[in-house]
Amino acid sequence: MTMPSPALGSQPPAEDTARRSTEMWMVLFALGIVAFAFANTAFSLKGQHLSIIVEYMLAYAVLVLGAHVAVRRWAPYADPLLLPIATLLNGLGLVMIYRLNQVGRDGNASAGSPISTLSHSATVTQIIYTVLGIAIFVAFLAFFKDIRILQPYTYILGLAGMFLIAIPALLPSSISGVAGTNAKIQVSIGGFSFQPEEFGKLLLAASFASYLVVNGRKLSLLTEKWWIFSLPRRRDLGPILVIWALSMLLLVFEGDVGTSAVFMGLFVAMLYVATGRRSWAILGFLMFIVGAFLAAELVPHVRQRFTVWLDPFSTANLINAPQRSYQTVQGLYGMANGGLLGKGLGNGQPFWTPLVQSDLIFTSFGEEIGLAGVMGLLLLYGLFVQRGLRTAMLVKDEYSKLLASGLSFMFALQVFVIVGGVTRLIPLTGITTPFLSQGGSSLVASWLLVAVLARLSDGARRPAPKPIQDEGMTQVVSLR
Predict the structure, then answer these.
(1) What is the CA angle 425-316-427, rounded to 5?
(2) I want to staple 26 with a disulfide (CB 3.0 to 4.6 A). Which of 35, 84, 112, 115 is the partner?
(3) Neighbours of 70 (CB within 10 A)
(4) Coil, strand or helix: which one is 185?
């Protein structure tokens, strides 16, 4: 029996159409949860206008459904859970920022509340950043058909990433400093501020992946004896020593312990994936611990963070001016007040924690949706990381595998560092909670990370093109 050959560029198979339909229903489910959270907040606070909330939800729904259409158009084989998870996390972040934004209007907060620093237009600003993030998500899927085009630019990407991370340290504190802290992590010009490190980390992940594709096997096979341990050769330790030194410089000159930890952890995790040698991971971890300990002993602002971590309730840290641990303690009390199920959206008092809308937004959720709610948030983060690692297992080429692994580890490390800080598992650092915290740079970079993983997962699941057949070629069709 003769049959025409299938045309190239035909519609995706039925199972991939079903995958996109599953994604659509999951996105609608996520939007339903966000709408319920918005309504719950509005009924809890005084003087709220439902028309405004409806406008916010309609705008957000249009944006997310547009992103879903873009995935159907340009990445039909992508993982169906990435977009719904990002939709739910970003939406819940909008709800909490709106909730904090309305405190000064309903009389629930005293005049001296620290939340007075949060502008009444914060919700609109965050929606604008969401528009920008989703627009970049769509543009990336439309114009980047194969992520491997970045592979030849190892050192260009690395230098660009390092330059973005180093920009705040090179500028005067009046431009790059964060009010009330010693950190230099942002650039503020004309009322507009952004954190270039959020994009620098993505470029560094792409650079590391390209470097390790070429040098990974050499680093895994060539070793020498160090006392009783078999470790990489001294000449091969150059890259990790450079990365270690740069991360320590970041820690010292920018006061950004969180980015330093994520930066170092990203490279060590990718080294472990590329070589499969535990010695690299152990060596990198020990080097960071030693460097952090030395910095805590020698650098005042780093030592202050460790002091607050070890003894936040002491008189020197909490009562005597300056009250260094006030933010940490307020966050801890807020989560404790939330208990198992929380006070309910709009019923707590998270506004007493300084910078609660950005660095400590996780404590707001802990107070208002309780331990059960924040465990759900952590499960969402964990599922997102699992889908990224699954993509790394499915892709065929080594560069894509390393990049997907690195981005997933970096995302997980960022969540661990900030959640561990607000719960006193580790010293508190001033990095954002992905998708939830107020801030444009972090939100846009998070959506860009989703776009990269969507493109990688699309390539991993895309079937190989069928060979072009002659018109006279016969095909045997087996009946099942």
Answers:
(1) 20
(2) 84
(3) 21
(4) coil
Q: What is the pTM of this model?
A: 0.89
Rg (CA), the chain: 24
- Is the pLDDT at 292 greater than 90, yes or no? no
And the tokens for 371? Answer: 């331990």
Distance, in Å, from the CA atom of 450 to the CA atom of 262, rounded to the nearest integer, reads 18
Q: What is the pLDDT of residues 94-151, one digit of tens each?
A: 999 999 887 644 445 544 555 544 545 788 899 999 999 999 999 999 999 999 999 9
Beta bridge partners of 223: 232
Higher pLDDT, 267 or 25: 25
- Model pLDDT for residues 439-467, shown as the tens digit of each residue: 889 999 999 999 999 999 999 988 877 66
Give CA–CA dist 398/214, Å, rounded.
10
Distance in angstroms (rounded) separating the CA atoms of residues 309 and 293: 14
d(CA 96, CA 19): 31
Q: Are 35 and 59 in contact, with CB atoms under 8 Å apart?
A: no
Report residue 112 as tokens: 């001296």
Cα 283 from Cα 276, distance rounded (Å): 13
Compute the residue count for the chain: 480
Beta pairing class for 187-189 and 223-226: unpaired
Q: Compute the distance between CA of residue 325 and CA of residue 249 in angstroms, rounded to an integer.
A: 25
Contact 207, 454 (CB under 8 A): no
